Amino acid sequence: MKRILVAGAGGFIGGHLVKELIREGHTVRAVDIKPLNEWYQVSEKSENLVLDLRLRENCFRAVNGFNEVFNLAADMGGMGFIENNKAACMISVLINTHLLIASKECGADRFFYASSACVYNGDKQTDPDNPGLKESDAYPALAEDGYGWEKLFSERMCRHFSEDFGLVTRVARFHNVYGPFGTYDGGREKAPAAICRKVIEAGISGKKEILIWGDGQQTRSFMYIDDCIKGIIDIMYSGISEPINLGSSEMVSINQLVSIVEDIAGYRLERKYDLNAPKGVRGRNSDNTLIRQYLGWEPSISLKKGLKKTYEWIASELSEGNDGKNSRRFNR
Ligand code: NAD
C-alpha cells in the first residue's frame, strides 16, 4: 500500500479523497491550514496535520517520508470569491511551488495537481452554447484573471518538474465540482451549493423568492464529487502527462440549475436577478473526448441525482437545532 500526502485535506474535495484513499487501505497524511475543527471531514485513520503550505519548510515537513502527493490546497472559492480576491488566489502559487520542490528533494514518485477550467481562454467562452472546451483551448493563454493564471502557471511548473527532474506529475482541470461536505455559505460557496441553500432558506423563511447572479442564462457543467474522486485517482495512476479535463459535459444554464433544485424542494420561487453580481464567463462546458479515450471515464451520477444528495445534506445542516457548523465535522 502507498504512503500518500493529501494537501488541502480539510477542504471539500480533499476530505472526500482522504476518505477514499483510506478505504483503499493506503497510509494517508492529511494536511490543511485550517484548525482541525473546521475541516469538512476528519478521519481518525489518517495522520492529520495543520500546516500553512505556503511555507517551504512546512511543505518539507508534509512530504517527508511520503512518496505520493495530491495537491488540492488553494485559497479559493466560487466566482464571488475569485473575482474579488485575485492576489490571494495567486499566492496559492507558493503552495504548489514548495510542494513540488519538497517532492523532488524528498524523492517522491508521483504528484497530482488540481487545476481548473478557469485556465481556459476567455474568448472561447463568450457563447452560452459552448460546445465544450478542449484541452488545447487553454492556449493562446487568456485565463481567468488571478485564479486562472495561477492555475495555468502551476500546470506549467508541474510539466517542467517532470521534464527536468523526472518527477511524474498529473494535472486535472476540474469543471465545477459539487456534493456534500463542502462550502455552502460564507462567500466561498459555488453555484450548486449556493442555490440549494437559497432554495432551502426560502422554504424555511416563507419568503418565496431567490436572487440569481447575472441573468441566469450563463451556462456551466457540474460534476458530482464521487465521479470527481474516481477521476482524480484514475488520472493520478494513468500515463497521461498533459493536463486533462475532469468534468461533466451535461451543460445547463443557471436558470435550469435553479429549476432542478426547485423540483427537489417541491416549490417554485420568484426569481430576481442581480446583473451586477460576479458571473464569470458566459458559457463553459467540458469536452470529454480525451478522458473518455484514455480512461473510459464518464460521469456516472446525473445532475438531478447529485443535486438531490447535496440538497439533502445542506438541508440537514440548516435544519432546526443545528447551526450548520458542527454536524459536518468528524463524520467518521
Ligand atoms: P476547498 O476550499 O474546499 O479546499 C481547499 C483547501 O485548501 C481548504 O481546506 C483550505 O483551507 C486549504 N488551504 C488553503 N490555503 C492553504 C495553505 N496555505 N496551506 C494548507 N492548506 C491550505 O476547495 P475544493 O473545492 O476542495 O478545491 C480543491 C482544489 O480543486 C483547489 O485547488 C481548487 O482550486 C480546485 N478546483 C476546485 C473546483 C470545484 O468546483 N470545487 C473547480 C476547479 C478547481
Walk me through this protein's architecture:
- The protein is of the alpha/beta class and 332 residues long.
- It folds into two domains: 199 residues, NAD(P)-binding Rossmann-like Domain (Rossmann fold); 96 residues, UDP-galactose 4-epimerase, domain 1 (Alpha-Beta Complex), CATH 3.90.25.10.
- It contains eleven helices and 13 strands.
- The strands form four sheets. It has a seven-stranded parallel beta sheet, with helices on both faces.
- The chain is globular, with a radius of gyration of 19 Å.
- The model has no long low-confidence stretch (mean pLDDT 95).
- The protein binds nicotinamide-adenine-dinucleotide.
- The site of nicotinamide-adenine-dinucleotide has 26 residues, from helix 1 and strand 5.
Keyword list:
332 residues, 7-stranded parallel beta sheet, binds nicotinamide-adenine-dinucleotide, two-stranded parallel ribbon, UDP-galactose 4-epimerase, domain 1, alpha/beta
CATH class descriptor of the largest domain? Alpha Beta
Q: Please, how many domains?
A: 2
Number of strands: 13
List the helices and strands in order.
Answer: EHEEHEHHHEHEEHEEEHEEHEHH
* Average residue pLDDT: 95
Structural category is alpha/beta
Helical content (DSSP H or I, runs of 4+): 25-40%
**Quaternary structure of the protein:** single chain
Termini Cα gap: 22 Å
- Sheet with most strands: 7 strands, parallel
Radius of gyration: 19 Å
CATH topology of the largest domain: Rossmann fold
Strand residues, percent: 15-25%
CATH architecture tag of the largest domain:
3-Layer(aba) Sandwich
Q: Helix tally?
A: 11
Superfamily at the CATH H level of the largest domain?
A: NAD(P)-binding Rossmann-like Domain
Spans of at least 5 consecutive residues with low confidence: none
Order of strands, widest sheet: 3-2-1-4-5-6-11
Shape: globular
